[in-house]
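Quick question, first post here. What does this chain look like in 3D?
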Amino acid sequence: MINRISKVYARIVLAHPVFVLIALSLLLLFSFYHSKNFQLDASADSLMLEDDQDLKIFREVNQRYTIRDFLVVTFTPREELFSRASLQKIKELSNSLKRLERVDSVLTLLDIPLLKTSDVKLSEITPNNIKTLQNSTVNVARAKDELLKSPIYRDLILSADGQTTALLINLKRDTYFTDLLNKRNQLRAKKRVEKLSEDDQAQLDEYVAAYDEYNTLFNQRRHQDIEQVRSIIRPYEQYAEVHLGGVPMIADDMITFIRHDLIVFGFGVFVFIVVTLTIIFREIRWVILPLLNCFFSVLFMVGMLGLLNWKVTVISSNFISLMLILTISMNIHLAERYRQLCGEMKDHCQRDIVFETVKKMVWPCFYTALTTILAFSSLVFSGIRPVIDFGWMMTIGLSVTFFASFVQLPAVLVLMKKSGAVYSEDRELTFISKLASVVRFHGGKVLLFAFFCLVISIVGIMKLKVENSFINYFSNDTEIYQGMKLIDDKLGGTNPLDVLVRFDDSTADSAANGSSAMNEEEEFSEEDEFEWITEYDPADYWFTPYKIRRIKEVHDYLDGLPEVGKVLSLASVVRVAEELNQGKAFDGLELGVLYKKIPDQIKSDMVDNYISIDNNEARISLRILDSLQTLRRRELLDRINNDLIKKLDFSAENITVTGILVLYNNMLQSLFQSQILTLGIVMLGIAAMLLILFRSFLLSIIGIVPNLLAVAVILGMMGLMNIPLDMMTITIAAITMGIGVDDCIHYIYRFREEFSVNGGDFAKTVQKCHRYVGKAIVNTSITIMFGFSILVMSNFIPTIYFGFFTGLAMVIALLAVLTVLPKLILVWRPFKSR
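> Answer (accepted):
Ran it through. Tokens below.
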């Protein structure tokens, strides 16, 4: 069977290389055409579990309370904030921002209603008699004092030191976009529980296509909006320290980062490849041929992503670099073997040498590609769409790399003259020879040291934690970091979180509240300050003292947590009203009447956003201090849930904690669990492949050990260095296992071949393997290591960690393959002498 395949291969690829190259060129043109649809995505939805029930709750809450996207402009003037000059600059800036097409409103220091400063009775409040800082007659000192003490606006619009203010830019809701998203999600949810009808499936396909198309337009518009905001605030930097913040800006900047990384990584790896290949081979053909393979593989994948409408996200932004690195790695092995055969087959023609190179290298390369594909395919079990797509991207990409290496490269090579630069044993690396001597004469110490490293690594692994610190994802010289840090320090925190409290309509509670309301109504008289007569409305009796007390308890508990910044709820508004009522608490009926009396704008912004009378529910909104060094997000979420149940005596079904923080935490925990599970599957899969390839259970174990050691050491280092696992570094283990095992396969495969040639002499075979395949392993490992090290040029910290630790893992795997693996072969002697 193998001989038949070899003959067909020689008859097609090597006998008709020109026609093969023409066919590949047509395929490349097809890919180039579809590359125009290549897209980037950095939306929040791209990093969430598709079947997460918390995601469904999050979207429902956003709809119920009409939560809009907003941007934050922080403004710290160089002179007194409440001076007329500073207030005038804020007014000018606000007016400029309001004129933007997709800006709905701008809330600033100048727009805040000064209830106490206006000296108006609570019952007489109207939109016309409430002053703001825009009124020329307002007492600025009293206004500043009121704002600094305000339960609502302190640490939201004004910092505690009175020197920094925020301009909240509310963006218009795109109802068409939201409607498309909701319809798509509804049908997707239905599909997860039952089989869709043909009409429903057609409808879903239509919604998905429409959403993807409109999402591109939406992102373009959002980018324009943010650039316009930046252009507006830029001139004000001469008067104040100004920063832009907000989730939309972060998402937009993430796309910019992805573009930057794709360009920098691609160019950086390209330059590195040229330099590396030049140093290793000192022959122009072995620079050009691998680059042609890289060009074909990457362009084909970009076209494939455009054709399949797969968007590149933060997680998959380094796929081009990975493909370049892995393509070069495979090509170096082919080039080294070709050059060795040129020396051994001096009397043979170019076609025979190329054919022999392919014949000897196809199986080890096939299994190395297969094991790496197995590692990346483990990502498809994560449940996170971008991670799943990344797994499929690399799976397809590695298949393309293997195809190009054994079709395009031989087809081009057979058209060229036989290489004049013949492999010379005199040019072997001294480093490799020393490693071979270490294995032969100090192998016991090598195994002892490896065992010591493994024990220390296990200690570090036990300290690993999973975290999702958004602010620490960015370099401290980026605008994202600086804006988030300032908002964290002075304006109440960056990371939003919502706590929903539902109230039971038990008979006893309803009766008590109804009785209380009736007594309150009887005690009300025309002499009271509130003289409003109302018809029956659910709002009249929703605002019971019990509910207000419970909301205040939750509000105060959350406000007392050191990890929590600003907290807003109905309790904030009630406390402002109580201050205006000479500190007296309101009874239920008064609150119901007050709710109907207050101006619509205040009611919409400060009341309706925090209660749902129809759902008998209150919303407490808080923001997490993301830059707090002691913050442990999962522990915080668990503590909030547990304390509300155990300390404040709420039932579990009446408490819901939701927000981006919850969704990202779910994503990371799911990814961690899936990677722990699939890492075992990857190990078993690799062992099975080694068993099939070498037909030896002992060799399959030997081949796994160096990679397990590399993975353990890297994870142990991260644990000992207190570096948390995040959405990218959590994949290091599986990827290291998949890539690192390549060198093991090449070494064992060559050892088996040389063992019979050297008469069954294990020590001599080790020396020969280090001399021949060892050089290719060192070259490929160094190439991979430096290739990954280019990722440290990213602005995205997880990418930097991913590149650094994966590159380091390759070095550890290299040393283990050239020391631990041959020593295990010498000790266990899995090969039999003939």
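Confidence is low (pLDDT under 50) at residues 507-534.
The two ends are 26 Å apart (CA to CA).
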